[in-house]
Amino acid sequence: MSGLARDAAAFKNVVYSQPADTGTGQNVNTQLVYAVNHLKSTGNPMRLQDLAIITNTPLDTDKVLLEKFKAHDRVLHDPKTDLYSYRHDFNVRNKASLLTEIQRQTRKGGGLSVRTLKESWKEAPQAIEELEKDGEVYVTRTLKDGQLRMVFWNEIKPEEEGAGMQVEKEFLDLWHSLEVPNDVDLLKQLANEGLQVTAAESLVPKGPAAKKKGKRSAPKQRQMRWTNNHLKGQIDLSKDYVAPGK
């Protein structure tokens, strides 16, 4: 092997020192994101020291990072226990509190996203399915895979007086299986039944607005502008000139 080849092989085998891969970076804002996201995924209150060890961030030693962490709008601190927890959109921890929150949102005129509820309580999807079986809530699902999407409170219960009857699943499936025919097939079906299509009343375009007839107003007297001020008061310039003796 030539000397040049040996030098090239030795160069490839050299290992240069590199910064340790901490996974959280050295930027304060990056470390803050890691700490808050872990607190969110845990779902349980944590000690500051434990959170710093797990996320490999200097939360307990870096004053700037700690101040940003405490001031974060999603971080809650309990001074009695000195524990930190994530503030979710909804404080849901069991089926009863879940139903209460669903009722509150439905009364406001809207439902709740199942994904958002799951972030607050991991057991929310299972509890929602149980509430659906009990007739307490209505659930909408995705068309592709049938995953839970939105949940609404069922204000009308079948067992209540005057609340009506629960529609059986067989009829619900039959109703949803019906398809609205296209325009051509719809016209054929109407013709077979002896029905006719009623055309919408066409709007007659309006012509230009006619001017109102009435008495013609007298022409306004044109105001004269005096240019020969030295003749003002001697000759009426608004009248035609008539030579003397005519």
Q: Going across the biggest sheet, name each strand in turn.
A: 3-5-4
Give the uncertain stretches in residue-range form: 14-21
Kindly identify the CATH topology of the domain at 95-156. Arc Repressor Mutant, subunit A
Question: How many whole angstroms does the radius of gyration measure?
Answer: 42 Å
Order of helices and strands: HHHHEEHEHHEEHH
Number of helices: 9
Highest-level CATH class of the domain at 95-156 = Mainly Alpha
The helix/strand class is: mainly alpha
Cα-to-Cα separation, first versus last residue? 137 Å
Percentage of residues in strands = 5-15%
Helix content: 25-40%
Tell me, briefly, the overall form.
flat
CATH superfamily (homologous) name of the domain at 95-156: Winged helix-like DNA-binding domain superfamily/Winged helix DNA-binding domain
Protein name: TFIIE beta domain-containing protein
Subcellular location: Nucleus
Region (Disordered): 203-229
Biased composition (Basic residues): 209-223
Question: In a few lines, what is going on in this structure?
Answer:
This protein has 246 residues and is mainly alpha-helical.
What attributes characterize this protein structure?
246 residues, mainly alpha, Arc Repressor Mutant, subunit A, three-stranded antiparallel β-sheet, two-stranded antiparallel ribbon, 5 strands, 37% helix
